[in-house]
Design brief:
Elements lengths: L1 H23 L5 E3 L6 E3 L1 E17 L2 E5 L4 E6 L5 E2 L4 E6 L1 H61 L5 H58 L2 E3 L4 E6 L6 E2 L4 E6 L4 E8 H4 L7 E5 L4 E9 L7 E8 L12 E18 L9 E7 L5 E12 L3 E6 L6 E3 L11 E4 L1
Parallel strand pairs: 1-21
Antiparallel strand pairs: 2-20, 3-12, 3-16, 4-11, 5-7, 5-10, 6-9, 7-8, 9-11, 12-15, 13-14, 13-16, 14-15, 16-19, 17-18, 18-19, 18-21
Helix pairs in contact: 2-3
């Protein structure tokens, strides 16, 4: 009994002591395959800060062609066709407009004929007035000669005074009539010019109306207006369209730009003129930012980048591309590859490799500004340290791991 009691006391003391000792032992490091982690070394120098976004190639200019008059679609060109400026894309018909154009043409011809008739009539009247003026002038000249003769004879005592006075009065009367007829002829010339000018103005008005109708008839043949590719035809054969209805779109596939979708939080640092690298999956071409959409859609903003280099083969509208916008070049900063959960101006814990290159210990690291592939280090690491950038959330309960 005493032996049993002694053994029980020993066990009661020994087991808790062993348990406490085991708890105080350092926890064994969990092994991790080296091939599944992504290490990187902290560096100091120039860090290029940039953002990246997916997007598509879109035409710089899209020519939208509306209907300039009402009509019904008779024929259309298929989308995707190469077109010139004078290529007919669609043919419309409008019998009422065509009849109105013919009527306007005949109105012009009738007005021109009326102008010719009026000109002949007025010229004839003018000739009659010239003939009357010539007759009056001849009568005046004769009466003046007779008055001069009778006045001379009166002075010689060969005729009575009354006859001389009668001759002089007749000459004065014809002089007045000649002066009046001459002014009447001059006024008639001004009247002729005014009447012809009025008729000519009417002709010009009718001709302008006819030209408008004719241009509207010509517009029934809808032309491209520019060289390019017919991207879309928005009407069908047989469809009636009204003035202003969009009919087709023509683009120039050799003049494309990249429309990139940039996260709203990153787009705040994007500015006009910043350089861009555009990856078309068949080559990388340089570009620059030309426009930033002020609105936000689904957490992103659209940034347009003009393409400065030659487009690679296969570059067509709506081609998916990836663009990297260079925001700034940071001089003499400490940086490392961007971790999976690295966010700007945050503090996270990373596993830092020890000098043996096998054991990694959890370390608190404070980050600054970030880019697509790198992030600035403000505190917690020094140049030359190696850290694991891969997703280590599976080891959140571990302070140390061992690479094998």
């Amino acid at each position: 009994m005493i032996r049993r009691i002694a053994i029980g006391v020993v066990l009661a003391i020994t087991i808790p002591a062993i348990t406490i000792a085991l708890k105080r032992l350092p926890q064994a490091a969990q092994s991790v395959e080296r091939s599944v982690v992504w290490p990187d070394t902290v560096k100091r120098g120039e860090m290029i800060r940039n953002v990246r976004g997916m997007g598509t190639l879109v035409p710089e200019d899209i020519v939208s062609i509306p209907a300039t008059t009402d009509g019904r679609v008779e024929r259309k060109l298929l989308a995707g066709s190469q077109v010139k400026a004078d290529t007919v894309l669609l043919e419309l018909t409008n019998p009422e407009l065509q009849a109105a154009a013919v009527d306007a043409e005949w109105q012009v011809k009738a007005a021109e004929a009326g102008y010719t008739d009026l000109k002949v009539t007025l010229e004839s009247k003018r000739l009659d007035q010239e003939a009357a003026l010539a007759t009056t002038q001849a009568s005046y000249n004769r009466a003046r000669l007779e008055a001069d003769r009778d006045d001379a004879l009166f002075k010689d005592g060969l005729v009575v005074e009354m006859k001389a006075k009668i001759s002089k009065s007749s000459a004065d009367d014809l002089a007045n009539r000649y002066s009046i007829d001459k002014k009447r002829l001059e006024n008639n010339d001004e009247s002729i010019k005014a009447q012809l000018a009025s008729q000519q103005t009417r002709i010009e008005q009718l001709r302008a109306a006819y030209q408008l109708k004719r241009s509207q008839v010509e517009a029934l043949k809808v032309r491209a207006g520019t060289d390019g590719v017919l991207q879309q035809v928005m009407v069908e054969v047989g469809q009636r369209v009204s003035q202003g209805t969009p009919l087709a779109k023509v683009v120039q596939p050799w003049r494309l730009k990249a429309a990139l979708q940039i996260q709203e939080t990153q787009a705040k640092d994007v500015m006009i003129g910043q350089p861009v690298e555009i990856d078309t999956r068949n080559g990388v071409v340089p570009g620059k930012v030309t426009r930033i959409d002020p609105s936000v859609l689904n957490g992103t903003r659209t940034v347009d980048a003009a393409i400065l280099g030659a487009l690679p083969k296969g570059a067509v509208p709506d081609l998916s591309v990836e663009g990297t916008i260079e925001l700034e070049r940071m001089k003499d900063v400490m940086y490392v590859g961007k971790p999976v959960f690295g966010q700007p101006q945050s503090t996270v814990s990373l596993f830092k490799l020890g000098s043996d290159g096998k054991t990694a210990t959890r370390t608190q690291v404070k980050f600054g500004r970030t880019s697509v592939t790198y992030i600035e280090i403000l505190d917690g690491l020094k140049v030359g340290d190696q850290v694991l950038l891969s997703d280590m959330s599976a080891y959140d309960g571990q302070d140390r791991i061992e690479l094998k």
